[in-house]
Amino acid sequence: MSEVMLTCENITKDFGGVRALADVSVAVDRGEILGLVGPNGSGKSTLINVIAGQYRATAGRLTFLGRDITKDEPHTITQLGIARTYQIPRPFSTMTVSRNVMVSRTFGHSNQGLEQAKRDAYEALEFTGLADYAEAPVGKLNLHQRKFLELARALSTDPELLLLDEVMAGLNPTEIDESVKMIRKIQERGVTIVIVEHLMKVVTSLSTRMVVLNYGKAIAQGEPDQVMRDPEVITAYLGKDYAN
Amino acid sequence: MLLIGQALISGILLGGLYAILTIGLSLTWGMLKVINLAHFAFAFLAAYMTYQISTSFGLDPFLTLIITAPIFFLIGVGLQWFFNRFDVSEFNSLLVSFGLFIILQALMTALWTADYRRIESEINPYAVESFWIGPFAFPIPQFGSFIAALIIAGLTIYVLNNTYAGKALRAISQDRDIAAAFGVNYKKISMLLMGVSTAYAAVAGVFIAMIFALFPEAGVEWIGVIFAVVILGGLANVPGALAAGLLIGIVQAVTSVIAEPGMAPLVTFSLLIIALLFKPEGLFTRRSTI
Amino acid sequence: MKKWYGSLGFLGVGLVLASVPWLKSVFGFPTFYLIFLYFVFFWVAQASSWNMLSGYSGYFSFGTGAFFGIGVYTTAMVVDKFHLNFMIALPVGGILAALLGLGIGFVVFRLRLLKGELFALLTLAVDFVLAAVVRNNDFIDGGFGVRLGAVKGPAFLGDFSTMMYILGLIIALLTVYVSYSIYHARFGLGLFAIRDDEEVAEGLGVPTFRYKMLIFAISCFFIGLSGALQAVQIGYITVEGIFSLRLPLFVILMSILGGRQHWLGSVLGAVIIFTLTDTFSKASIEYLNQVIIGSLLIVMILFLREGIYERLKNRLWFSLAILIIALVVQIVAGFGERFISQMAYAMLVTIAFLLLSDKIYGKLVKSFSFFLPKKQMGASNV
User: Fold this and answer.
1) d(CA C298, nearest CA chain B) in Å
2) What ipTM was predicted for this assembly?
């Protein structure tokens, strides 16, 4: 029986008059890769932001490993073991690559002292193939490398749950393949993953389970095959005519 | 009661002067992302020049505008050229213009010394004259500044909404690159705006020279109040600047009468702090959706 | 990280500087130098405090005057109204300033929409508000100013100038040491992360609210502490003098000149700027001072935004050589009335040299390559 890591119960998020998430209930089990998909504007990134603590849910409850984190600040949530990456990489621009990782290693769930964090940073960079760039300023990295830096930063916090927000955006096929391999490697290390992605092939092949959002509502949950054949899901993406 | 009524009137009239100073600053900050602290130095430099020209040539202060307005227009154009040339960021423009402010202040001290300067009443008969409506006095220079504010605000609003230049400005303030794709020449239009803004400062300067005694550090005292008006009015919001100017003018005048003149800045800046905390886009601006 | 010999270094510098008054009594140079150095210590403390907050975290404060004012008026009240020894005012002034900082921070840092310019304006507004409060409160000042009579310190600190020198030195050392320690600590790393991208920092586990409050309080403490001592030096305290924009302007310029990324930057900037202003305010044309300050600010922002520290580090020997040569030339030519003025001009020349772009510097180094050890060639490679 796999353990439930994260539960979202009836999560609603309003921005002024706009309801971005409506009564979304999702559970994430330990060890799985949960694919979070949906058309543009369906609320995927919003849900990630709510889980990570950047946004406060308007209503509903979030539990992580038994603890209610609905009202927690982002830094607390990270320290509890949830890490996230950003769709558009946001490295610390005045720091070198390794120092970037030092920050997360020190302040994240891993909670290492500065000396140890510096040593451990190399490990994280090796895992993501960026070891050669350790002392370089982040300006020298291309987009793909920056995404891997995002990953390295998030991973170095020793997370139990990793939220990946559109890591594949803007990558060429080779880079996508490398990213997929990387994500599988991460899962093998025992990290549970929630992946938000537009590329259907990638998501359906990676995920053990999927959740489909549309207009802020969760319209389908389950195994990838099941979900992708669900008429409501097909309607959401392609329109009613294709549902049959 | 009478006292408060008079204070209200004085406040509104002075608010006009605040508005003149604010409109230029607010436009360049909101549209060009340039925070021009030197604006104050320009206004006072114009005031000093008005004083000098009037005193040396016996010219009516209002007429000195013929000389000062074009000069300061050109200065503004030059300043914006400079900002464009060095691609100065919004925050750095604050620091650079601060440096310029300091230099200009030194210039004013060098030319006119630290002594108080006031235009003699023979040359400036307006200073001591008012007209009366009932029991309330309307000092001429302040009244003039109020009318000027209305004219300037009206003119600016008209230009912004109904001319090509106005459209171009509104375009670049939203997205410079897209505006360029539509043929808007950022360099030219930004220099034009800064020139006009500085010319407005010159107009303010004329009234300042007529109403107040001048000394080199005077500009510093205005920085706080005018920034309060800029923020409260909302960036690049001309009607907002006018309304905020009048509001602050009233607040200052009434506070001076009910409490003490020294308390006026306290009330103004407390208002500013509250505004910055709860409605940083300005009291009179609608909050745009994300 | 290199903690222990860093601390030793500070101790060493402290002892050397502390011996100056004794050297004065032995070699008999004018008291003027003690006073000059006191003011250098004052500005070092102020600039370092400012940089701890604004340089490290990126939250640009224009409100130095407010916290300085609290320190100054604490001493004024303690001495003039409560008739206690001024030494008590020093820590109290610091603490009160820190409390104001915490109060402001508690309200302001909760807001996520607060952009850089708005924080700067807000702190400026606080300065004006406080000035108005003090001016209108008859118990504190009431617009009349406060005149501090002769103050007495402990006998072992010697005469007035020596006492001020030693106290100023202690405060400056303390402030810089704290700045240095934070720079090398986890706290500093978190602050730098906040400066680069606060939202991401928070997301990676940095407790941003707590850290911002902490650094604001520490910064304000030292500004107030140094201000409390300065009150004694000034003697006659007026609202205009204390809450003027001069203090924030200088402090900001010092950190910008020296470099906001490193703890040594504001120290360098303070020494240089104060030497310059001291020289030029004594010169016959008073406002030349202002012109130089204003121009320096503009030049630094346009051409060397990050300050001179990095370049000085990379071009260290060349810079020292230029400084010494400029100094020697002046002394030999009999130019400049005092040693300090000569230092000022030499500093200006060195700054001009540091403003040379890396390309030009590279060419310069190549042409001197015969005389220099291999190390210097590497250092010019940016």
Assistant:
1) 5
2) 0.90
